[in-house]
Amino acid sequence: xxxxxxxxxxxxxxxxxxxxxxxxxxxxxxxxxxxxxxxxxxxxxxxxxxxxxxxxxxxxxxxxxxxxxxxxxxxxxxxxxxxxxxxxxxxxxxxxxxxxxxxxxxxxxxxxxxxxxxxxxxxxxxxxxxxxxxxxxxxxxxxxxxxxxxxxxxxxxxxxxxxxxxxxxxxxxxxxxxxxxxxxxxxxxxxxxxxxxxxxxxxxxxxxxxxxxxxxxxxxxxxxxxxxxxxxxxxxxxxxxxxxxxxxxxxxxxxxxxxxxxxxxxxxxxxxxxxxxxxxxxxxxxxxxxxxxxxxxxxxxxxxxxxxxxxxxxxxxxxxxxxxxxxxxxxxxxx
Amino acid sequence: xxxxxxxxxxxxxxxxxxxxxxxxxxxxxxxxxxxxxxxxxxxxxxxxxxxxxxxxxxxxxxxxxxxxxxxxxxxxxxxxxxxxxxxxxxxxxxxxxxxxxxxxxxxxxxxxxxxxxxxxxxxxxxxxxxxxxxxxxxxxxxxxxxxxxxxxxxxxxxxxxxxxxxxxxxxxxxxxxxxxxxxxxxxxxxxxxxxxxxxxxxxxxxxxxxxxxxxxxxxxxxxxxxxxxxxxxxxxxxxxxxxxxxxxxxxxxxxxxxxxxxxxxxxxxxxxxxxxxxxxxxxxxxxxxxxxxxxxxxxxxxxxxxxxxxxxxxxxxxxxxxxxxxxxxxx
Lengths: 335, 331
Known about the structure:
A: alpha/beta, four-stranded antiparallel β-sheet, globular, B: Rossmann fold, 11 helices
């Protein structure tokens, strides 16, 4: 049994315009010490997936219509309390994309890091503040004691993200959910933050669920990858499978739309034409069919089930059906 | 120099925050851009790259230095008549496709406004051209009567491009035109810019922080740090053979979408962050973070030097190269 296991998750939002089917049958699992990356473009449902599991989306308008999420076998959708303790901030820590707006501007950094320790672990305020300084030191903030008495506006973006990490790991969580942790940061600061997250994981053995749109960050940190599109998982597997043996035209499209770092401009950028489907009325068939260069008739009418390519590598694409004899260029085909 | 379309000479832009606080946003930058060239300008937030672009085009008055366009010196601070005069020649595409379009104007009005102000065309003729441009940037002509909020980020950026290019400018400053867009849409916009550049013979200053995209797009790359230009050269030279320690850090920090490469790469991250641009101390601006900093780096500001044995046109401002080279001007 995996540490965190999500099965067939469906999330909807009721709006004036109708019901948005934001997440439509997402599965993934992550183990201790492992990093899972959920990749996809804006609006694919990657953030909503994690936020709904954590109970961070207001319900209504949001609603989990189907699916389970098991943390060490406990169903955390039904019950956020394990052994009398709320899982959030305790067994599961979260860091968000925009550190500027996710911290409380009226509390000192130290008090914000101390808060989960007081709430979840029964620390006295004095002990929690002492621990907060140690945590700031751990995330490599210079002059941690002095810094802990300052407010968020006195910190740079990189230091705020370090503080967020300190807060998220304060209670030594089993799982760290990192939602675009480095997107708002400059590339040299991003490198520092990714190094930091990696070294903390090595020490604590926590699992990481990394939500990002940046394939470079995925390649840098992830062990396994789940590619999402229009609320569904298009392809999942080890990082090497997904990057080097891409089995879904969408994964391939994402890779070809990015410049590579090889010498010379040997290759034109290949954009993915069109836009993602309207999730008020998701298409009957494969969600990617309208943009897919290899779309067949069956793709427009029938949504494929995931096909296993080998081991953990699976993809939701008719091209991998045993009766399909179309060879798509660049696409990995199971032997 | 006659072979440059646009040339900046010691261009400087300072902002005074108070009696004791001076932001040296852009300091003493001299570069030239050849006709039909794409010059990529990279740097972190706060490096002054956007301020440079805006100062070049006249959106900020210059503190000192000058900008020559087709050999003609541009005014120090633009008056209304100057904008009127240069709008046909120089335009800008902005970073944020959400805040750079007036939400109360229709797309047709936004794109056509330049022609309305700067030409004698009748309304119907303007509309024809607007429709033409909508098609050129891959939108529909019936989008003309819609408002910006009805469009996605990529579509809005296309509207911004049409607005900038409808006056057929020679020179366009693109200020992070793709940063706000998704990967698959970035490629659409980059390819569109490339096609228009070819068909219209545009010269571009392409400002961005995404290094692999800048290398892909540009002929040459200039790197800025804290207001000064520290390295400039041909794209592949700068990208694959960076000489300045900061450029090396910047390029080394860029994660590549290649797991094998990422596993085997050597650690590159350097502690520290870009310092405040207020009251910058003398010397090299990167000295406080540089792993190779020497005494001279904290005292003297290095000047750009030509590294002739590394690549034609490859210039670096770093004291590590003091002995091996001659200053750029005398080469």
